[in-house]
Predict the 3D structure of the following.
Amino acid sequence: MRTPRVLFVKYHEAADQQPMSRRAAEKMGLFPSLSLGGLAALLRREGYPVGILDLHAENLLVDQAEDRVRSFDPQVVGITCKTLGWPAVIQVAQMVRRAAPKAIVVVGGPHMSIYPEETLTWDCFDLAVVGDGEETLLAICDRVAHGGEPWDVPGTLARKPDGEVVRNPPRPWVRDLDAYPFTAFDLMPMERYHGLTVLEPLATMVTSRGCPWHCGYCSQVYSEKLRFRSPEHVVEEMAWLERRFGVREIIMFDETFTIGKARMMAFSDEVLRRGLKVKFNIRARVDTVDAEVLRALKRAGLRSIHMGVEAGTDRLLKIMNKQITRAQAEQAFREARETGIETRGYFMIGYPDATAHDIEETIRFACGLGLDWASFSVATILPATDLYRIARERGYVQGDPWREYTLDGGGPIPQLETETFTAEALRRYRTRAYVSFYLRPELVLRKIARSEDWREIREMLGGAVVLSEIVKSTALRRVPQAHVGKIATV
C-alpha cells in the first residue's frame, strides 16, 4: 500500500435539519455520503489506505471521535461541507487538528465554491477544493506521497503554513463519469442507514452531475456542466448493490434523473435485460416525464417519483423561474399515479412577491394532486441563488450574511421576511399546509387501505411523528389574509 493514509469524516448533520427538528429529521431518514464514498473508492483503487468515519450514522459527538481519528493516524483528512453544516465542519476540523496535528485537512463540497477564501480564514483547514473532488484529491495525495507540498494543486485554494491564502488555477471537468469506481459502501455502516418511505437495506446513487435549469431558489453552482453516466454503468452498480449488500431499494439523488427520454428508455431496457429485482426512487421535473417513460421506469422497478412543484399559481412559478406550469404538474402526477408509482411533491411557502392568495392556492393545489406524500418548506435564501440576490437588493437581508456566517463560523440563519409576510407568518402557513394535506380523511383512508404489511404501518407512524413535530414547532392558528405593503402578523 502507498501512503498517505486518508480518512474521510462526515459531520453530524443536525445543523442541516433546519427548520425540521432533529427527531423529525431522524424519522425521515439517514443516508450514506455519496461524495465521501466516491472519493474513498477512487483513492483506494489507486492504492491509498482509506477509511470513512460517519459521526452521524455512528451517533458520535465530535470529542468522542477523537480517539478514532488518532488511531487511524491519517496524513490527509477529507471533510465535505454544506452551508448549514459549516459550524459542525469547523468543529470536526479542529478536533482533527488535535488528534492528527500533522495531517493535511482538506474541505470540499458546495459551500467551498461560494466562499472559498472565507473558508480558509480558519486555520484548521489547509486546502479547499473547488469543483469536482476526485482528480484534485488524488493529485493532493500523490503530491504528499512523493514528499512534495500540495499548496499549488489545481482546483484548490491553499492556506500555506505561513498563513498566506492562494487561489490555484481551476481543474478541467472530467466528462467520463464511468471512469470512476462504485461508491465504497463497504467502508460505511450500511446497517445504520434508513428512510421513512424506503425499502431496507437501502443505498444511494447518482447517475449524472449538474442541472440545465436555473430555478431562482436553487444553489446549484455547476448547472452548465451537465454530465451523465452510461446506462450500462449505472445498472452494473445497481446489480452490484443488490448482490453485494442485499439492497432492496436505491435512492437516485440526481437533481433530475429523467433528463433525456432516450436515456431513460435505454436505462429501463438494461435493467430488464439484467433481470434486477432491486427497486429505486427518483427525483424528476414534471416537464421531463410522460406516460411512456413512466411505464418503462415502472417496469424497471421504479417505486416512487419525487417532483418539485413549488407553487400553485402560474404567476408565482414564473417569478421563481421554475419553467413549468400547473397543467404540466397535474398531468405528470396523474400519469405517475395511473402507472402505479408512488408520488411525492415539493412545495415552497413565501417566495418574494407571493401573495396570500398564492400561498393558499399552493396548499389547495398540493391537496388536489392525488399525492401520496408532500413536503412543504419556507423559502430559504441560500447563497449563490437569485433569491439571495433579490433579498439583498430589496433589503430583506443586510450585507452578505452568509459570508459573515462563514467568517464567524456560524450565527443566525437568514430568515426571509418581505413587505408582505413576517418569518413567523410563513412558518405558520407551512404548518397549516402540512396539517391540511396529511389530515384529509381521504388520504388517511387511502393509506390505511394500502397498509398490507408492517412497512406501511411504520411509514404511517413515522409520518405522524414528523407531523406532530412540525405542529409543535409552530402553534397552529389561523393566518389572516395579507396585503402588499403590509406586514402579515399572527
